[in-house]
Sequence to fold (767 residues):
Amino acid sequence: ASVEGLFPCLCSVPVPPSGLNMCMSGSATSCEECLLIHPSCAWCAQEDFGRGRSLTSRCDFSQNLLKRGCDEHFIEYPTSSINVLQNIPLSSKGSGSTQYDVVQIMPQKISLSLRPGDQTWFSLQVRQVEDYPVDLYYLMDLSLSMKDDLDTIRNLGTKLAHEMGKLTSNFRLGFGSFVDKNMSPFSYMAPKYQENPCNGYKLFPNCVPSFGFRHILSLTDKVDRFNEEVQKQMVSRNRDAPEGGFDAILQAAVCKEKIGWRKEALHLLVFATDDVPHLALDGRLGGLVHPHDGQCHLNDNNEYSASTKMDYPSLALLGEKLAENNIFLNFAVTKRLYNFTALIPGTTVEILDQDSKNVIQLIIAAYNNIRSKVELSVWDHPEDLSLSFTATCQDGNPLPGLRKCADLKIGDTVSSSPRLPHVINVSCVLLAQKTFTIKPVGFKDRLEVAVDYECDCGCSRNAQNNSVICSSIGTYNCGTCQCEPGYLGARCECQEGETSNMFLSACRESEGKQICSGRGECSCNQCLCYESEFGKIYGSFCECDDFSCARHKGILCSGHGECHCGECKCHAGYIGDNCNCSTETSGCISDDGQMCSGRGSCVCGRCQCTEPGAFGETCEKCPTCPDACGTKRECIECRLFNSGRLADNETCQRQCKDHIIPVETLKTDEPGAVLCLYKTDDDCVMKFTYSEHASGQSILSALKEPECVRGPDALMVLVAVVGSILLVGLLLLAAWKLVITIHDRREFARFQSARSRARYEMSGVAL
Fold:
């Protein structure tokens, strides 16, 4: 199985810039000066070309020179070229008989012949080969708070070797430990703590003295040795919460011979701790003013001997040494306080359980993460070269400005295009041969690039000293005469100091104008321009200079262009009156491939967010935007449930880099959090909150399962309705019966009363 990267490139021919002809408006009086103005400029070395015109007219675009009568044979127009010097084919397997000759990058050496100002593309391929050897060094914090973790990993070697054996047949394991500098205020220094820092500590009364870093087991394939050494270890105790882990990481990286790192293996350094490390300058609390020198300082006992002599290393030094020795650093930590790791290339952070029970899973995850991506880094980058990349990952879409592809599957092929957009135009004396290196992060393989500059003209090889064409007092070179001191003119026919009215009139740009624009003297029908402390004054009438142009922050043409006769001529990739606006849009492309995430516009190489509430380098963050919930919904669907639009095209992991936290109960009262809801295909409701962490990472808290409310049972509804009707009917019937009964009784009572009165009256009549 392999992960491949193809990095194609192409030499591009510069297109003549529109607007003012910078070749003719420049100050070139020789072929070499002409070629430095712009890569589109060419020089005509034909002797009878441009008679009666200014010398600079020989410098022009090649097509213009042809139209003006210059024979193609006399046109000097060098172009850039690429030569592959070493191109060994890529390997397919990392272990076995070929493990010492594994090739993971192709080609290995190239040379570029580059014309100043030109742009060039070149290609390279990268492959993560199958069954590549792995060296894993386990660096553990042995402070007192890690005691339960030490108990957990006592049999780690056997279990880890078993799991890694499924990924590589060539695995070696090493072990080292650290605590902190054995000095105040980092450790307990009272006499009673010298031999036992835990003296008087009731929970754990015995421990070993504090130490900076101790290398215990060199890398070996005998994993039982790892178990044996770990079982011998005891914890120590330091005074403050931060540990001296950075001292240990640097020693593990630079002490290559003692640690046993192999050149032909993947180097993985696992750093296990439960707290943050001390950083550079913290050592000054203990009086350590000497910065770390980045060297190995392990003594005969394999202990860090400079622990109490030098400060802690800086992040920059740590990143440099890790990259220099091709080491991937994996932080296995119990706290989410390692945001600084983004400053160290090739690092990953995994959250460790309190007792390190999940350490094997973290190591396997870190290994798979490393093997699933390719990222290029540039070493010894020359200041006068600009280098950019365009990556094409597994979805086939080019991504300008990216130099890595992540979340690759076995067999995926990706591509990137390294490009040299332009070389800053400086004197060719300064453009000596340069070299730089391109290497994938963590790989030993590299591409060495040598750059030569095409500064010379071919016609200069035929220069004629004291040529009769130059009145025998000058050198004829590339169609022009370079006169001896004291002589001037197109053919060196005049001496300095000769003047006449005819010569003076030829030195005025127009009637009424100053002679030589007031910035030179007229001699032999030509203007000799004054020297200036600000730059060069030039032109047929000294009307031009290279310093009267717009500036940005005090820098002429912003440093991204050349001043020609009062106007900035911008280098490729820059525009504007003072060339301060970059046309590069790669920095504006968001992870989903949109320009500024569709919420802004790219202005001068940076996103200007126009959507209210949007922010971030590519306007990718916008909790209050109307589409915020919809955008994050796709990531929830593909990351948690492997469904939705992003699940099919395998771009989920690349586009969805937010931190997603599955929860049982959703908290909606967190400040700054936006509650999002959407209806799933099965009519359930999925809820999640979206917020932005202070570190810049988007946090999504989502329910583990959508909320589904069952609809009413039709039969139960029918029974309830019918029952309700019957009940109401019975109640009405009972009420009606009660009313009738009461009414009948009242009527019967009236009848009885009337009957009694009738009998009484009849008995009275009879009497």
The chain is about 20% helix and 25% strand.
